[in-house]
Amino acid sequence: MTKLKIDWGVAAVLLLLGVLMIGPLLAPQDPELVDLAVRLQGPSSAHLLGTDNLGRDILSRVLTGAQVTVGLSLLALSLAILIGVPLGLVSGWIGGRFDWVIMRIVDTFIALPDYIVAIVLSGLLGPGFVNMLIAILAVKWVGYTRLVRSLVLQEKTRDYLMISKLAGGSNSRILRQHMVPHIVGPTLALATMDIGKVILLVASLSFIGMGVQPPSPEWGAMLNDGRAYFAQAPELMVIPGLAIFIVVASASWLGDQLMKRFTISPEDERMTSVLA
Q: What's the pTM value of the predicted model, to 2 decimals?
């Protein structure tokens, strides 16, 4: 019975993320259409969630902004995994000076708060989609490199790998056939828990003006736009803030379920919890 509930819960969260990714198709109006005649209006049949300070439909902007915020977060996370996992595999497998250099870089980034590094890099590179993506990549790849390296170091001394080497197996074949299956579960669990953190990072950078720029309907930028009108129309901040909360909470719950679902040793779970 418990397993069935978890399955339905995971399916519901995945469905939510899928709906958010097609948000623009569900938007009832153009999210960037300005109509000052209906600015700061409450919910109505024409605008189910009301309008903002420029008369733009809030529901349409929230649905469209989901693709911007969540889509950018998933893109950044995917690129971080594509960079961090291979580096962790190679670093843990070959060791030596290469491993030492990679780990010193990883330790340097991990020693600094993600948000501080991302804000500094965004400030140096300037606002914009690409620069924010680079800033997020710079702080997120290190967690996957360190996690995968620790998993490789645990597995590389096992007898079956020694036998595979003696049988003439190449390094690439051993990594592909024996190492990759061991890292998929922990990596996927860490990535799922990271979705919420990256969404918050994207929204935070846009909120302070270093991320996606107006008039793009990004959730963090919508929060910033609504600050000046909070007393008059609090829904301008409440609605995108609630959207961020729901998605982050759902992604965190999904990551917790995946952590329980995969077979992860206590050491791996502690490492994943530290890096998450």
A: 0.79
